[in-house]
Amino acid sequence: MKDFDQYDALGLADLVRRQEVQPIELVDAVIDRIEKVNPRLNCIVIKEYDRARKLAQGPLPDGPFTGVPFLMKDLILFYQGVKTTNACRFFKDFVAPDDSFVVQRFKQAGFILVGKTNTPEFGFNVTTEPVLHGPTRNPWNTDLSPGGSSGGSGAAVAARIVPLADASDGGGSIRIPASRNGLFGLKPSRGRVTLGPHYGDFWYGQAIMNGLALTVRDAAAYLDVVGWPLPGDAYQPAKTVGSFLETVGQDPRRLKIGYTTASPIGAAVHPECLEAVNKAVQLCRDLGHEVMEMKFTFDLNPVMEVFLRIASVLENMTLMMAEMLVGRKPTEQDFEKITWALSQHAKDCTGVQHAMDIEAMRHFSRQIAGDCAPYDVVVTPTMPDPPPPLGYHDQNNLEVEEFIARLNSAVGFTLPFNVSGDPAMSVPLHWTKDGLPVGVQFIARYAREDILFKLAGQLEKAQPWIQRRPPVCA
Fold first, then answer.
1. Which of 65, 119, 274, 301 has its Cα between 20 and 30 A from that of 292?
2. 164 — phi, psi (to 5°)?
3. Which of 100, 107, 116, 149 is catalytic?
4. pLDDT digits over 244-303, tens only?
5. How far apart are CA 139 and CA 36, in angstroms?
6. Selected catalytic residue, list 173, 189, 243, 426
């Protein structure tokens, strides 16, 4: 498979389907690629080579990705018999007793798990530098962060280890590594992907699963696989008739697009990120869309205050659940500085205050979605700056106040749409003068991922990005 990286995941599956390559060849190719670049990037932290080779040589389900090697983010999801550490020392030896529903779905789709990717502890950071596994490095510049919390998956896909990997997004954790690594990443609508059977939801619907991909069509096909709420889930978005994959390549018609480069939290925006949006706006105009400047009326600062209080309560709940899963009481030494500090902060929050915070977030959701409602699509920077150096968001060496201040600035454009539940994607449309990727964010109304996939397919055709490869590449 010398030409492995000429294919996306659907392309590899087509080779298997036409019997031009065997799944074991693909698995061996991916293992070789991991061994070649992972020492430089540290993006894969759990290797499942024996399991992958055994699966590849046995009968596989007939699905859209049959025989395609795959990487899971080491967070939340359970794959029976495989460790789920959540990048946390307390979970370092925890082995999943069964499968999450999403894992059942991607097994049925024919994926072959080869390993699991790095993430910050419990996913609560915009970089990937956990104490348990060490930092993941950006393949475009190994001194820089690949983003988080899906930074391991982002680095692995960008470095062409695999064309598609599992990811999740609670405040930007798909879109941030998409921007930092030059990839396509779409956060689906609230409730689109179930977290059953182990969780009712995560952060009251703000956290959602999907993937990071080299191509739009891979991301759409993957959402077709995992995008199924379970009966009784708290949120049940209507699904577009047909499949999301079918929408890629369809004419999006003339869209009404609003754009802004002003951070909702008041953070400064780097000139390269401003240029990225301006170029995207012009591209959309060239493609025939109606594009106009708009403004957000909501203020993200009070949203972040409420969000962090909610997050601290849920972090404390996570530690209580951890005790039940692992079978011993957690201590401060089991966790990183910020994780423990947040969990302890929750003890000052009453049940009534927590209920009021949830109610406040529902109102914020209406404000955020209301600002976007006049438009088919809204365009913003994904990030306020290009990839920062490793250590800038370190959750062990920074004081809590400084960590939170830097976090708030970083998620100023992404987190609002976790709050509103609207689908949002980061598209790799710009590279800096230093050769670093900068994503542009596109947001649609709730449950209208189909509009984003149509537009993304159009953008990908007009300005392809798959040929851009980082210096560290398999």
1. 301
2. -155, 135
3. 149
4. 999 999 999 999 999 999 999 999 999 999 999 999 999 999 999 999 999 999 999 999
5. 13
6. 173
Tell me the CA end-to-end span of the chain in Å, nearest whole number: 12
Q: Residue 137 in 3-state DSSP? A: coil
Spell out a b/e string for 259-288, using b for 16 or more CB atoms within 10 Å of the CB, else e: bbbbbbbebebbebbebbbeebbebbeebe
The helices-and-strands tally (H runs, E runs) of the chain is 15, 11
C-alpha–C-alpha distance, residues 86 and 94, integer Å: 10
Mapped onto helix, strand or coil, the DSSP state of residue 112 is strand
pLDDT tens for each residue of 375-386: 999 999 999 999
Q: H or E stretch including 76? A: none
Active site residue 243: no
**Domain count of the fold of the chain:** 1
Q: Which spans in 57-191 are helix H?
A: 101-108, 151-158, 175-181
Is 473 part of any domain?
A: no
Residue 30 lies in a domain: yes
CATH number reported for the structural domain that contains residue 100 in this entry: 3.90.1300.10
Compute the chain's Rg from CA coordinates: 21
Per the structure, the complete domain to which residue 340 belongs is given by: 4-462
pLDDT of residue 260: 98
**Residue 348 above 90 pLDDT?**
no
